[in-house]
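Workshop exercise sheet. Pairs work together: one partner reads the sequence aloud, the other fills in the structure field after running the prediction. Swap roles for the next sheet.
Pair: D.N. / O.F.
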Amino acid sequence: MTARKLSVEDRLDIQELFAKYSWGLDLADKDLILECFGDDSFFDHLWQGRVQGHAAILKNLEELWYDRQSWWFGRQHLFNTFLMTPITTDQGEEGARVKSWFQILQFNTEYRTNFVFGIGARDDVCVKRNGVWLFKQLYVNAWTSVESVPWKGKLKLPPSRPFRPSPPSPPQPNPNGAPPELVRELSGAPKRAAE
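Structure field:
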């Protein structure tokens, strides 16, 4: 018996679904992004948890776009290395399980620099309804610890340590030769207790 395969056209349409999702997500285009989901779709995004339906998905996205705008603005979600497996959902719909890697690039508006914000994996279920591919279940697995990486081999690394910020840097000598207390006074910085 030959296993069902996704056509090349279906694979390209699924990749375009990810592109449409990225454009909608990263530019706060609610109409475009909601076109990526069915009315009964699930959206499982990290600390926001799993929600279902257009209204709940949009509420989560608006929280990201507007309540955390300085943190969100200028992002680009990139998806690649797709593994697509044909499936039949529990509801009997023909679809695909789509696993992919993601990278999030970000433009920092204050420093006017770009950086990699995060990486991770996606494990989604897509279905084709009326000739259009949609996300039925979207699951984000951001790699924020050793435990979140879906490593299959023997793990020899120690568990993730709790995050601790770096200690403050010691005062640097002033290249102009001015005493540090004068530099602080002229800059308006508060005096240190020992001065």
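Discussion prompt: The longest helix spans residues 8-26. What would you look at next?
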